């Protein structure tokens, strides 16, 4: 019986005293499998301390409930008790009485307790357990940040301390969600290249920029792992003399992309105008669009190192070359259209641009708005017409005097900067990577950087599946604690996904039938893995409160295959906890 019903967590009775109690199992056994391997329930209990008999809901149990809820399907804190009532309480680590005690006040106090606890030691213990138990390879780590938008003033989120610990500042900053009107926090995440498993995180003030965050992040990773030889990969904000020097000077290794503002970038693009580099194919793959040629990445070493003496590897992507050319063409066309619209406005009867300076300003603004100022210039022409107007009142006659009136009209036209277009076209698809590692070949440097989008997917999961934004709490301390739970939930979800995919590799399976209608899936996600267990329930028939018979769920072949890939015995679902 693998289908739930509307009575999940409730009791149906008939006139004869018989009743049927249904409890949802869902993906709880899978989540608990990872929790137990991490030892997280015990670590939470040790971090949050013991409770006396008067406590109806232990803080450790409440935090475990929050984390489990974030993995399975986020509910607001005020609905957490209602959500938990649908499930078998034993699988939530709760008794029947504790389920009834779940409410937003108790969960909020548990978040306060988590903030006050030694979260650094807790997270260190969890991550060391994860690395050891799951064999996570930490030879290469990737770092990136994203913004978490909030709705409201949050005047109390000013960084003031609670019990000697600073709280995050919720304020305006550079919004990566393109919502500059909203205040925000900055979420900084580091993952391994082995399954994009989260390793560390930090919740920073909303106006934090990325440049100064890499040094403390790298130092924290060194303290956690106890070594400096891992490869640290990040975006262009790592390309600063201070951050690169800090890592390289302590024996570390890094790979990052060099921004266009660096002189080395301009020098190579200028060199390309009269030279043809020797490109070496590094990797080839099918295009993301059907019917298009393969996407090819090629590399060539820079002729000279960076100003700091680090190695530069130039990369050419055929797909990026196509995008660069298409983007330039689209912007050029948009610039021409903008100037045509301005010219029509100047010819209209309600034109208010009466001076050449005003027309020049409007033309420049039109090209900037179209982002075409590099390739399109505005040429202004003026035409002066002479008319005569009666000098005074009255009927015109032979003796009427007239005065000359000069009217100046402006027109604008677009000039295409063909030389500039040719200059930029010579380096279409090119971008530079910089590294202090002398042993990695060029293809390996590129492969390291190309894994970065997997980290961005973790940000997407945080803000979509786990619904981290918008934040529905007001206390900065509770917000900080909730994001600690978010990190742990992200870790659990990543481990589930990694275990299934590794299981597929061991079983030599390219795909499994995970999508609706049993369609093949090459890269199972935790969201879809848990979704196929959503309706799994256990039903118990009883009479006058006495159990008569328990109906265990009957797992489908699809569900059994997933459990086998996870290494989870089927009895986790077919035997009562």
Walk me through the structure:
- The chain has helices spanning 28-38, 40-48, 59-72, 80-84, 96-100, 104-116, 119-134, 214-225, 241-249, 263-271, 318-347, 356-369, 418-425, 442-450, 452-463, 476-506, 526-531, 557-566, 571-574; strands at 11-13, 18-24, 140-149, 161-162, 165-166, 184-192, 198-204, 231-233, 253-257, 280-285, 295-301, 311-317, 376-390, 402-416, 430-435, 512-515, 519-521, 537-543, 546-551.
- With 577 residues, it is of the alpha+beta class.
- The strands form five sheets. It has a nine-stranded mixed β-sheet with strand order 7-6-3-8-9-15-12-11-10, sandwiched between helices. A four-stranded antiparallel β-sheet has the order 1-2-18-19, with no helix packed on it.
- β16 and β17 (519-521) form a beta hairpin.
- α2 crosses α3 (59-72), α2 (40-48) packs antiparallel against α7 (119-134) and α6 (104-116) packs across α16.
- The two termini are 17 Å apart.
Range of strand content: 15-25%
Number of helices: 19
> Over the alpha carbons, how many angstroms does the gyration radius reach?
32 Å
Largest sheet: 9 strands, mixed
Whole-number average pLDDT? Answer: 90
Helix content: 25-40%
Placed side by side, the strands forming the largest sheet appear as 7-6-3-8-9-15-12-11-10
Low-confidence stretches: 1-8
What is the terminal separation in angstroms?
A: 17 Å
What is the tally of beta strands? 19
Please tell me what the overall shape is.
globular
Structural class by helix and strand composition: alpha+beta
């Amino acid at each position: 019986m693998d289908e739930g019903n509307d009575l999940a967590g409730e009791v149906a009775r008939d006139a004869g005293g018989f009743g049927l109690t249904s409890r949802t199992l869902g993906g709880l056994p899978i989540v608990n499998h990872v929790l137990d391997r991490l030892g997280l329930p015990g670590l939470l209990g040790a971090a949050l301390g013991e409770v006396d008999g008067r406590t109806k809901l232990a803080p450790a149990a409440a935090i475990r409930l929050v984390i489990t809820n974030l993995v399975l399907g986020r509910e607001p804190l005020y609905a957490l008790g209602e959500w938990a009532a649908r499930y078998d309480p034993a699988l939530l680590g709760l008794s029947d009485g504790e389920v009834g005690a779940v409410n937003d006040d108790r969960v909020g106090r548990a978040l306060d307790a988590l903030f006050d606890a030694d979260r650094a030691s807790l997270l260190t213990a969890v991550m060391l357990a994860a690395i050891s138990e799951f064999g996570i390879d930490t030879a290469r780590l990737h770092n990136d940040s994203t913004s978490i938008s909030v709705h409201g003033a949050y005047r109390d989120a000013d960084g003031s301390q609670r019990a000697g610990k600073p709280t995050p500042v919720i304020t305006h900053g550079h919004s990566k969600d393109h919502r500059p009107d909203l205040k925000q926090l900055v979420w900084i995440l580091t993952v391994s290249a082995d399954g994009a498993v989260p390793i560390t995180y930090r919740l920073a003030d909303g106006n934090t920029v990325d440049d100064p965050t890499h040094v403390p992040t790298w130092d924290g990773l060194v303290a956690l792992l106890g070594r400096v030889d891992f490869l640290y990969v990040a975006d262009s904000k790592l390309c600063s003399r201070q951050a690169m020097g800090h890592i390289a000077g302590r024996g570390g290794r890094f790979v990052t992309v060099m921004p266009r503002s660096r002189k080395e970038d301009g020098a190579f693009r200028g060199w390309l105008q009269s030279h043809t580099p020797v490109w070496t194919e590094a990797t080839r793959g099918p295009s993301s669009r059907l019917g298009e040629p393969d996407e090819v990445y090629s590399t060539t070493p820079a002729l000279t190192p960076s100003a700091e003496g680090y190695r530069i590897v130039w990369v050419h992507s055929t797909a990026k070359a196509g995008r660069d050319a298409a983007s330039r063409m689209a912007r050029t066309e948009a610039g021409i259209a903008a100037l045509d619209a301005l010219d029509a406005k100047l010819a209209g009867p309600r034109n208010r641009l009466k001076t050449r300076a005003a027309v020049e300003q409007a033309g420049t603004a039109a090209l900037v708005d179209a982002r075409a100022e590099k390739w399109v210039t505005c040429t202004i022409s003026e035409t002066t017409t002479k008319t005569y107007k009666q000098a005074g009142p009255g009927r015109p006659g032979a003796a009427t005097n007239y005065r000359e009136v000069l009217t100046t009209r402006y027109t604008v036209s677009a000039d295409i900067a063909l030389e500039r277009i040719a200059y930029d076209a010579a380096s279409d698809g090119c971008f530079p990577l910089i590294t202090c590692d002398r042993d990695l070949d060029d293809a390996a440097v590129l492969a390291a950087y190309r894994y970065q989008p997997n980290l961005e997917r973790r940000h997407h999961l945080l803000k979509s599946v786990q619904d981290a934004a918008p934040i529905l709490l007001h206390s900065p301390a509770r917000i900080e604690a909730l994001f600690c739970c978010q990190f742990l939930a992200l870790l659990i979800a990543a481990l589930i996904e990694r275990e299934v995919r590794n299981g597929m590799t061991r079983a030599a399976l390219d795909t499994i039938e995970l999508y609706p209608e049993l369609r093949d899936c090459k890269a199972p996600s935790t969201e879809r893995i848990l979704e196929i267990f959503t309706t799994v329930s256990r039903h118990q028939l009883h009479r006058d409160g006495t159990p008569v018979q328990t109906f265990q769920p009957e797992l489908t072949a699809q569900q059994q295959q997933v459990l086998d890939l996870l290494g989870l015995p089927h009895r986790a679902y077919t035997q009562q906890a």
